Prior knowledge:
The protein is α/β, with parallel strands linked by helices. It is built from 10 helices and 8 strands. It has 2 domains: 205 residues, Rossmann fold, CATH 3.40.50.620; 55 residues, no CATH class.
Amino acid sequence: MQRILGYLRRAVQEFDLIQNGDRIAVGISGGKDSLVLLNALHDFQRFGLYDYSLVGITLDPQFDGIQTDYSPAEEFCEKLGVEYHIIRTQIGQIVFDHRKETHPCSLCAKMRRGALHDNAKAFGCNKLALGHHNDDAIETFLMNLFIEGRIGCYAPKSYLSRKDLTLIRPLSFAPEADIIHAARQNVPEIVKSRCPVDGHTSREMMKNFIREQERANSGFKTRVFGAMRRANVDGWGGKTYVRDLSMDNPETNGKPERFHMLEAEIARRLKEGQYADSGN
């Protein structure tokens, strides 16, 4: 868990994810990512850097009209002393039985997001933490590029003005391999997904593609993520990379495609002999 805490702290500082007084809802699916996130946010409180509280929220899609047993997640929250709520929904039946979606992931995700946002607000939270990790970001970026033909990704931090809710992704720098290791060491039991299409999605195909590229070209993921950071795609540049659009700056001359690192960061890297960003 120490490595995960390191990644989390870096994300919190790089993207300004947490402030004093935050009441943070944690979306808990019962899988490894969400439970490791909850554990890490709970342990991070002990550093005393920020004063915030946590609320665990699980949305049960009730696939085939059957309630999912979330007792492992419930017991884990009780062990950590975290307030926990299970919300039963009809999302599974709407997507698979009523709508009979050929490609159900988009609608299911949209409905789950809406329900999660509403419940986070209902429980008095100003922020919602999601368990997306570094591999998720790379996969999403490449899926948008190859499937939709656009440059983009979800943001590590985004504000929903209509809900007055901020979404944060504290595991943005954590590789999936480290999360798997942390889950084995710290999470007693995970809840297996009952989604009918689990493991047969476009994301799973992209995972396989990235795995092949990483074998053939070692460092593939690092380079892709480094490009996302340097180009500041959807805010992934964080505080390390900034866009300077000043017409008074002769170096950028108002050109939006030019990105520059903060002067302090440049000085630090020159001092430490780091002339290239590792991207992770």
